[in-house]
Design goal:
Elements lengths: L7 H8 L9 H21 L4 H4 L15 H15 L5 E4 L6 E2 L11 E9 L10 E9 L10 H4 L8 E7 L3 E6 L4 E7 L4 E6 L10 E3 L10 H11 L8 E2 L5 H11 L1 E5 L12 H14 L3 E3 L19 E4 L1 H13 L2
Parallel strand pairs: 1-3, 9-10, 9-11
Antiparallel strand pairs: 1-2, 3-4, 4-5, 5-6, 6-7, 7-8, 11-13, 12-13
Helix pairs in contact: 1-2, 2-4, 6-9
The structure holds 2,5-anhydro-1,6-di-O-phosphono-D-mannitol and magnesium ion (MG).
Length: about 325
């Protein structure tokens, strides 16, 4: 039973029995993500002190060179997961290829692979706008006892065991699902503990916010252009409000709480849009569905798309169920 003010640590232990494959391994994995989140949060919070502490590329007082935050976040997550030997492989938006975690002593006995976008929206760091980390967890499909292969990472999103994000915002939150609803935890920075602040998060069935980079309007497919016009028309409960942070985690988080739709469509310049299927869209789609929302590529549920490569991009429509269905209707009618 979840209750407000429960710590994330307590929540993980109490809910372990509800996990599909309950061996404690997934709990340990989420605990490691919780730890890496706190470390990255600390670094992100220091970003504004760049004039004092030194910019990326500078050498600090200990003679260490300062790293860009997205590179640093990547390292922190990979090291935290790899050092604990609780996963058999990691793929990251920041790495060209997946990483095999070789543990000499346990002979590839771990069963989970993790995919991460360590610092999404990192171009927002310089202007003090919220950024996030996105993670996605699968059970490997190749036999335990052998090294992981690409096949373990190229699974449809429907196979995810857990997924979530950390939002480094006005407060830092960790929001995740293991397929039993979505729960949000807020970090108390004074004591470094995440508390359950948003139990059983739900997308409102519909909403009044649409989030899309309208600067690219001219390049959008006709269905998206028509849907945007629909959002702006003075009819029924419209016009809707336009809100676009340009940081997927933040736009998603706001829309889940207030009701809304996020769209990153294909464009004439970019046939598959911009967002990555494995690191961004699948975990967000899993969370959306678990919270009663919807996520699609305009025609098909994101979670049913069969990935073909690690860094594959995909058009993304995600948010309140009725809004996504309406956008899909425009896509169908104008394709
Ligand atoms: P990134 O992985 O390089 O940070 O890019 C992903 C980000 C998303 O967070 C955001 O929604 C989108 O890119 C914004 O893109 P654009 O500036 O093209 O609207
Ligand atoms: Mg990203």
């Amino acid at each position: 039973m979840s209750r407000k003010n429960q710590t994330l640590g307590e929540f993980i232990i109490e809910n372990q029995a509800a996990f599909k494959y309950s061996s404690g391994e997934l709990s340990k994995l989420i605990n490691a993500i919780r730890l890496a989140a706190k470390v990255v949060n600390h670094e992100v919070n220091k970003a504004g002190l760049v004039d004092i502490l030194g910019a990326a590329g500078d050498t600090n007082i200990q003679g260490e060179s300062q790293q860009k935050l997205d590179v640093l976040a990547n390292e922190k997550f990979i090291h935290t997961l790899a050092n604990r030997e609780i996963v058999c492989g990691i793929a990251s938006e920041e790495e060209d290829d997946f990483i095999q975690i070789n543990s000499a002593d346990n002979n590839h006995q771990n069963k989970y692979v993790v995919l991460i976008d360590p610092l999404d929206g990192s171009s927002n760091i310089d202007v003090n706008v919220s950024v996030g980390t996105i993670f996605s967890i699968y059970r490997r499909v190749t036999p335990i006892g052998t090294p992981v292969t690409l096949e373990d990472f190229l699974q449809p999103g429907r196979k995810q065991v857990a997924a979530g994000y950390i939002i480094y915002g006005t407060s830092t939150m960790l929001v995740y699902t293991t397929g039993h609803g979505v729960n949000g935890f807020t970090l108390n920075p004074a004591i470094g503990t995440f508390y359950l602040s948003h139990p059983d998060m739900q997308f409102p069935e519909t909403g009044k916010i649409y989030s899309v980079n309208e600067g690219n309007y001219i390049h959008f497919p006709e269905g998206v252009k028509q849907y945007i016009k629909y959002c702006q028309r003075e009819e029924e409960d419209r016009p809707y409000t336009s809100r676009y942070i340009g940081s997927l985690v933040s736009d998603f988080h706001r829309n889940m709480i207030k009701g809304g739709i996020y769209i990153y469509p294909k464009s004439s310049a970019n046939q598959n849009g911009k967002l990555r299927l494995l690191y961004e869209c699948n975990p967000m789609a899993f969370l959306a569905e678990q919270a009663g929302g919807k996520a699609s590529n305009g025609f098909t549920p994101i979670l049913d798309v069969q990935p073909e490569e690690l860094h594959q991009r995909v058009p993304f429509f995600c948010g309140s169920r009725k809004m996504v269905e309406k956008a899909e209707e425009f896509m169908r009618n104008h394709s």
